Amino acid sequence: MKAPWSATARQRRQAGQGSWWSGLPGVVYLIALVLLPLILIFIYSFLSRAKLGVGVKWQFTLTPYTELLYSESLSGGRSFDPTYLQIIANSFWYAIITSVVCLALSIPIAMWLATRPPERRTALVFAVTIPFWTSLLIRTYSFIIILNDNGPINGFLKGIGIIDEPIAMLYTPFATVVGLVYTFLPFMILPIYASAERFDFRLAEAAYDLGAAKWTVLRRVVLPSIRPGIIAGMVLVFIPALGSYLAPELLGGGKTSMIANVIAAQFGASRNWPFGAALSVLLLVITLLVLVVFAVVAKRASRAAGRGGWEALI
Amino acid sequence: MDASASALSVRDVTKTFHTPEGGLVHALDSVSLDIAEGSFMVLLGPSGCGKTTLLRCIAGLESPDSGQIALRGQRIDDMPVWRRRVNTVFQSYALFPHMTVAQNIAFGLQMDKVPGDIIKVKVEESLDMVHLSGLGSRKPSQLSGGQQQRVALARALAKEPEVLLLDEPLSALDLKLRRGMQSELKRLQRETSITFVLVTHDQDEAMAMGDQVAVFNAGRIVQVGEPREVYLRPRSRFVADFIGEANVLTGVLDTFGLVVESLGLVPRDRLIADTDAASGRVHVAVRPENVSLQIDPVGTAKVTDVSYVGGDMRVEALASAVSIVSRVPSQGVQPPRIGDRVSISFAEGSLTVVAD
Amino acid sequence: MTNHSTKTTGSKKTTGSKPAARRQRRSRRGVGLGLRDFPTFKAVSYLVFAFLYLPLVFVVAYSFNSNRVVSVWRGFTFSWYSEVLGNDDIQRALFNSLRIGVVATVVSVVLATGLAIGLLTMARAGRTFAWTLIGAPLIIPEIVFAIGTLALFVQSRIPLGVNAITLAHIAFCVPFALLPIRARLRGVDPAVYEAAADLGAGEFTIFRRMTLPLLAPGIVAGALLAFIISLDDFIVSYFLAGPGGTTLPVYIFGMIRNAVTPGVNALSTLMLVASILIVSLSYLLARKRR
């Protein structure tokens, strides 16, 4: 028998498995095309607006950040302007609603998937992932068809006589949230499913045996055990939802801008790259903070998860 | 042993590993060993004792920190793996999953630039040798564990190595198959007269297969010898305990014999003859089959357990603080019962002095 | 892409406890025992599947609608497909998309294969750094990545267009290409490489005759995933397209913006079919046992 420490990196290298430098081209490439753009965005956020609007003027300024809170009138005076704060708040709000709706839908389906026979399970899980692999643009667009005034939903409601006039659903915050939920649902289902699959269903049986009712078992035995999956799902949904561009753009009809739409506008029609860069930095900082918060929660959760199931019973 | 007469000679090989906790472990602590040409050497020891590390050092999969390894008198320790005329049968077989059985066997020959038509013949011969003719076009995954084992053997033997290394080759097989493969391996070794070095932690396997057995403990070789010799004359308490079952007794040795606490005097002729040198307080080992217990109402010991192991009867008796195990063929013996008083005697020349 | 070993152990547990659960279900309380038959779970699951697939079904269905008004059904027709496929601009966009997709796939797969192998022997700090870089395109908002690369290209005077899009796509295709390759690599018994060396193979021979063929299914699966990701990308392509770099999704976006005609549905249907076919192929390859 081999001692556990004998599988060292050194030994593996001898075994003809290639060596670390084969990863070098990939690392260099990603530095150039992932790290460098981020650094550039950070630098841009402290520069001045170019005259023609494309690019930046290399002159240090904090204006892009003050623009978040103040608007400058033509006469040069500054006044507090909550427009962008409002948009940031909106973005948070949409991301929160999206995460919560996704969570509510995902727990039942994840549990259901985890209790299917193994052969069917793989196929069903794959079925959950398929929409993710189709074009985000087309997925978002499909809701224009479904939610518009002449679309199948309004048609159906009119057909059975519930309404006379179509309900305006497209180009509303509702449409945006539906689009977001649709886009990110698989990201919530999959990690929760991964946790649920590892759940030892004998624990539930033990709980029943000790006299717990069905909902109690769900709440006190199952949920604590799948908490790591729930936390992972929240991260995977909340973060991209916060930075979403397409759903508000296509389904919100310009009425429900999120941060990403404002950023895009600065690099397009508004031609204020430094301000767009500052917003991007803000979005990145928020993303990182959210990651850190979830990482702390997850650590606590995983520590609790080991005992959780049994502690809940006692 | 003269190093030039040996197929493989290992001199003062030391190998240390760093544990993840930052500690140092001596996997091999100045190990020396000579393996005779055409012999079957078994490296035996508990897990983590360094025997696999030695095998990997010989193969070139691990490089020793210091020491020398020579193959037929020629140093190989700084030679890369692929140039050593030594081949290995891996514990996990390590068959190439994307190649057929025939391609697996051919691989090593291709590396030696053997012409294609000769490879074909050799592959057939090798398959024949391990009784797998006709299975050349199968993938390893379509074979049973025992068959995979044979392919791994054929693949290594096809290169006609000077030494064949086998790393726990039978540990993945079930007991029945293992017995069959043991005699199969011995047959192959006799027929090819290639030097075999086999690593195992199974003492029965070591006894059954080896011409020579090297017993490892904690990175050192503690005894080398023929299986019978190692079994009957263990040099240390570790060897006595690790190989088979042993009673290890403590007593005081003088010219009359050995005085063992609560057993009394054991006559000198019960000890192996050449223990003259030792005297004073010693440990002795004796195998259970050399211990006999007679029912005796005034005996010194009391039977505490009786069980049947194969055709043998195994009896445990307690003489005040000393526990003694005896093992005798069960046929034609009046079995003692638990609680019976017995007297203890040892066969002539059966006790051997061991180091602690 | 989930770990196979946990999958099998998980399944064993559930199947193992199943008869016991059944027995108890009958005997205790008369109420359904076990989470297997929580009625809400099943109902919600069916609804979720409907929610996931109905929008796509509508896109496909309306692509055969003869009415110019997209979502009012009039009759069945194939005419939108011939109209779309005959359009020069669409053909040009398709060609751009394919060209970007193929180049981005090839480069990202080469980089990912190198990374998969290199990550095994990298020192701890290097590994953490590499993983951060690989994971970054997945976690940073796509819009930030898009404008970041836009800034990079403008700053370094790399002209926007097909080549710029390709360079950016490679970066976010790497993680998708990497996952199946890595899964494959981890499934290989390291002793196989040792055995090859033991039988006389040098480093290069081991790479050519062991590593590459063993990784091949993972490499193909990774390539397929990278290709879909590149083909379907909209946001990054939109910002980097410049005048001549219109890709299929960028073109579709323009169509949606201007006037939604059933032609969008036809084009979308074609892209959906392509994506689903490719991902299914990748899935089958990744599952294939040696």
TrEMBL record, chain A:
Q: Where in the cell is it found?
A: Cell membrane
Does this entry carry the keyword Manganese?
no
GO cellular component terms, semicolon-separated? plasma membrane
Keywords per UniProt = Cell membrane, Membrane, Transmembrane, Transmembrane helix, Transport
Which residues span the membrane? 20-47, 92-113, 125-147, 167-193, 229-247, 275-297
Query: Topologically, how does it sit relative to the membrane?
Result: Multi-pass membrane protein
Pfam families per the UniProt record, alphabetical: BPD_transp_1
Keyword Transmembrane annotated: yes
Q: Which InterPro entries match?
A: MetI-like, MetI-like_sf
User: Major place of localization?
Assistant: membrane
Residue span(s) of domain ABC transmembrane type-1: 88-294
Q: Which family does it belong to?
A: Belongs to the binding-protein-dependent transport system permease family. CysTW subfamily.
Put simply, this protein is called Unannotated protein
Q: Name its species.
A: freshwater metagenome
UniProtKB/TrEMBL annotation, chain B:
Q: Which InterPro entries match?
A: AAA+_ATPase (IPR003593), ABC_SmlMolc_Importer (IPR050093), ABC_transporter-like_ATP-bd (IPR003439), ABC_transporter-like_CS (IPR017871), Mo/tungstate-bd_C_term_dom (IPR008995), P-loop_NTPase (IPR027417), Transp-assoc_OB_typ2 (IPR013611)
Q: Which residues form the ABC transporter domain?
A: 8-243
Under SMART domains, the record lists: AAA
Using the record, list the residue span of the signal peptide; answer none if the entry has no such feature.
none
Q: Where exactly are the transmembrane stretches of this chain? A: none
Q: Which GO terms describe its molecular function?
A: ATP binding; ATP hydrolysis activity; transmembrane transporter activity
Q: Which UniProt keywords apply?
A: ATP-binding, Nucleotide-binding, Transport
Q: Which GO CC terms are listed, alphabetically?
A: ATP-binding cassette (ABC) transporter complex
Q: Name one Pfam family in it.
A: TOBE_2
Question: What protein name is recorded for this chain?
Answer: Unannotated protein
Q: Which source organism does the UniProt entry give?
A: freshwater metagenome
TrEMBL record, chain C:
What subcellular compartments does it reside in?
Cell inner membrane
Name a single GO biological process.
Answer: transmembrane transport
Positions with biased composition (Low complexity): 1-18
Quick one: where's region Disordered?
Answer: 1-28
Q: Where are the transmembrane segments?
A: 43-64, 100-123, 129-153, 160-181, 214-231, 238-260, 266-286
Q: Which GO terms describe its cellular component?
A: plasma membrane
PROSITE patterns attached to this UniProt entry: ABC_TM1
Q: Which UniProt keywords apply?
A: Cell inner membrane, Cell membrane, Membrane, Transmembrane, Transmembrane helix, Transport
The ABC transmembrane type-1 domain extends over 94-285
Q: Which CDD domains match?
A: TM_PBP2
What membrane topology does the annotation report for this chain? Multi-pass membrane protein
Q: Name one Pfam family in it.
A: BPD_transp_1
Q: Which family does it belong to?
A: Belongs to the binding-protein-dependent transport system permease family. CysTW subfamily.
UniProt function note = Required for the activity of the bacterial periplasmic transport system of putrescine and spermidine.
Name of the protein: Spermidine/putrescine transport system permease protein PotC
Lineage, highest ranks first: unclassified sequences, metagenomes, ecological metagenomes
